Amino acid sequence: MTVARTRQMSRWIASAATTLVFGGTAGCSEPRDTLELVVSLRTDLSPVQEFDTVHLSLFSLGANSVAKRHSVSVEENAFVPARTIAELGDLQFGDYRLDVQLEDASRDRLIAKRPVLLTVATNTAVTVPISRSCVNVACPPKDNPATPEDEAKQTACFGGRCVDPRCTAENRAACGMDAACDEAKNTERGNEDCATGAECATGECSLGICWAKPKARDAAAACNATQWCDPERGCVDVEQNPPAEALPSCIDGMRNGTETSIDCGGDCDACVNTTAPQCDDGVLNGNETGTDCGGDCDACRFSPVVDRSCRDGAQSGEEEGIDCGGICTPCPGSLEFPSDIDFDCAAQTDIPVHQCLALVAFYVEMDGSLWDSQTGWLSPMSMCTWEGITCAGGAVTRVEFADNNLVGSLLPVIGNLSSLEALTIEDTAIHGSIPSEIGLLTNLETIRLQRTALSGTLPSELGELSNLKELWLAENAFNGPIPAELGSLNNLEELWLSSNGFGGNIPATLGNLSNLKRLALNRNMLIGAIPSEIGNLSSLEWLWLNQNQLTGSIPAELGQLSELVRLNLFTNQLSGTIPVELAQLTNVASIFLNENQLRGDVPAVLMDLPRLNTIRIDRNACLYATSCGSFLTWLNSEDPDWRSTNTDSGCTPPPGTCP
Question: By the 8 A CB rule, do 364 and 329 touch?
């Protein structure tokens, strides 16, 4: 029996008697190795015209991680009645949160979103209702952010009202509201309780709420082939279609705009004090054992008897310690493993026992029996010849995996690998956060955890890795601020944090990294000004800050980066002028300043940069040139659209500007 199977059976035995199933029916037989969740969407928002993409994220609550992501590009077909949009397979028995978002991807706008809580104990089907009446409705409501302690929070919208997130078409009892219309009155012409404001649409009562349904093309008052039916405005020409109003930033579940945290701060309401555990902030923090429950908060909603061992941050079930021992991975210092693991760390002589324990725990947690390649693992071969493991001086020095079907999370026991110099796990499905115990690995020179499902905030303990030269964490789901402690990594040469969800300001302490050659913070949600301290990075060759929400002016101090080859600041909200000090970048090959709010005269001295071969300044507010002749010819050849794409319609260059 595999490790995954052993764990799954243990959880099943401990919890089957009390499991609640939402959106499906539990069977009485032994659970399958993997289960399937079929997701359908019911909405009266118009596909293509109001939304063109459906994005799903399925989170495993027990692991506090992303289990599945799925996106669907929709075609012009009705979603009333419901349509199947995803079949999510290879799931384990457990509790999940499903987030469904309707997006207008062509305009990068979120139109509506809906969370659903459910338990998958057998093959399950769930229909997610997102009605037009829920667009721009914030849940939970501001005037009633929490329900009584024995009720789930009202975090989902149904029929324009905030309801329990377990509310689905299959679990209408959880919706907790009186019917707004009478389904018995439905006719082919609509329902008298659900009148629409346009003749081209009829009102349909279903699930106790009203939905708008366009009339068939051959029906009276129906729209023609070049139009679509807006239930409020009537027939609208397709080419003149404005998108449905997108969710304002304060209720979209993301940190954006001027917010200092998720949906709060800046132009939104004040944020609650997050220095203490919060029981209503929608994240797993403090000493909670589930999101907003357990620890100092109320008991978790999904039956406190359900065994959440190995993932809940508390000692529970058969555990001998917090998330270790019993049916879980071994506790540090313990020689106990799940019953089907037959390897005696005390009997081997290759590496210290505590490092052996860490490797076996890694194998168990990452479902090693299912790896594509597992050469040597748990065999009598030297542990230093096991797949992905390198030793030196009688200790593990390198753990390196690319792909290889690893799953699971990084356990605190990784801190046992005190001689580790390189930790590389890329292109895998590992999830969860980076444990703070990584700060114990002071010999680390390289960390490469890229293109995985890792999430959460970065531990400040990373700043204790004084020998670290490379920190690659790109293309994950990390969030929160970039720790200021990273500025203590004096030997760091490469810092790649791109394509995550980091927010807040760029720490000024990064200006202390005198050996840094490449700094990639692009594709995040960073706000505020570019710290002038970045100009202290005398060894920097690449500076990628593009595609954030940075404001303020471009620091003149960037002109001190004498080794800089690539400068990417595009797609931000930078203002002010292009500093003439950039002409000091004698090694720069490319400068991208496009898609900002820059104004003023373009410095002609940029033409004299000896190695510059690409410059982009288009799509700014109001740029112009007062130096004509060869400079203007050069600039027009480098970026032909720079003048025509000024976004300020009132841009009036001063007298003497080039024609």
Answer: yes
